Structure to design on (232 residues):
C-alpha cells in the first residue's frame, strides 16, 4: 500500500488512506478481508487493478456483510446493524426465548463493588461484555450500560452479571435496531456531550458521553417538506 503512495493510519494500522485532487480513497483490511471505499472512483479502480496483479483476489461487489456487521442500502442512505450477531449472542447464552427488557439499564442503578458479595464467573462475564462492547459500534443505545458493566471486568459479582443479562434481554426486543447514515449531500457535523459529575460511588469519577450528528441544511428540509416528507 505504501508503494502505491497510501498513508498508514496512526490510530488504526489496518487502515490505509490516499488523498488526491481533493478526493479520498480508504482501504481497511482484516486478515484476508478488505474494504475499499471513498469518493475517488478512478483511484479505487486503479487500486483494485494493482492489487489483482499482486494477489489472488475476488471482488465481491458492494459491501453487504463484514465482521458481523450487515450493510443495507436504500434511497434514504446506508443502514448498518448486527442482527445476526445479536441472534448468535442470544443463542450462545441460552436466551433466545427470554422476556425482553424495555431499557438496557435501570435508572439510578448505583452499581458498585460490594464487600462479601457473591462473585460471578469471570471468564463468562468477560466474554459476554467483550461481545457487547463490539456490538456498541452499531448500537449506541447500549453504549452507556456496556460502559458501566465493563468497569467490573477484573472481579465481577452476581449483581454485575444480572445487570449485563438485562442488556441482553433489551437486545432481544430490539434485534433490528441499527444506524442509518442518511444522504444529505454535505458533512456538517454537530457535537454534544454530557456527564453525570462524580456519579461513580466507588471513586467519584464522572461517566461522560459524546454524540456527533450530521445536520440537515435548511434547503434540504424545505425540499423534503415540499415533497410531502417529514423531518426528525
Amino acid at each position: 500500500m505504501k508503494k502505491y503512495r497510501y498513508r498508514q493510519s496512526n490510530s488504526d494500522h489496518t487502515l490505509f488512506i490516499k488523498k488526491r485532487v481533493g478526493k479520498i480513497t480508504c482501504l481497511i483490511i482484516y486478515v484476508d478481508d478488505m474494504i475499499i471505499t471513498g469518493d475517488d472512483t478512478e483511484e479505487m479502480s486503479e487500486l483494485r487493478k494493482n492489487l489483482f496483479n499482486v494477489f489472488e483476489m475476488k471482488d465481491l461487489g458492494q459491501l453487504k456483510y463484514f465482521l458481523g456487521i450487515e450493510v443495507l442500502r436504500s434511497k434514504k442512505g446506508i443502514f448498518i446493524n448486527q442482527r445476526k450477531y445479536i441472534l448468535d449472542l442470544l443463542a450462545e447464552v441460552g436466551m433466545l426465548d427470554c422476556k425482553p427488557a424495555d431499557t438496557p439499564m435501570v435508572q439510578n442503578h448505583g452499581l458498585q463493588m460490594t464487600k462479601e458479595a457473591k462473585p460471578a464467573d469471570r471468564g463468562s462475564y468477560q466474554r459476554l461484555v467483550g461481545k457487547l462492547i463490539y456490538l456498541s459500534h452499531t448500537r449506541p443505545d447500549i453504549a452507556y450500560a456496556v460502559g458501566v458493566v465493563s468497569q467490573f471486568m477484573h472481579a465481577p459479582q452476581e449483581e454485575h452479571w444480572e445487570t449485563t443479562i438485562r442488556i441482553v434481554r433489551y437486545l432481544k426486543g430490539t434485534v433490528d435496531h441499527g444506524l442509518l447514515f442518511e444522504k444529505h449531500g454535505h458533512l456538517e457535523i454537530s457535537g454534544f456531550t454530557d456527564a453525570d459529575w462524580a456519579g461513580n460511588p466507588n471513586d467519584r469519577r464522572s461517566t461522560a458521553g459524546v454524540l456527533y450528528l450530521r445536520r440537515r441544511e435548511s434547503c434540504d428540509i424545505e425540499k423534503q417538506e415540499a415533497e410531502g416528507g417529514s423531518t426528525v
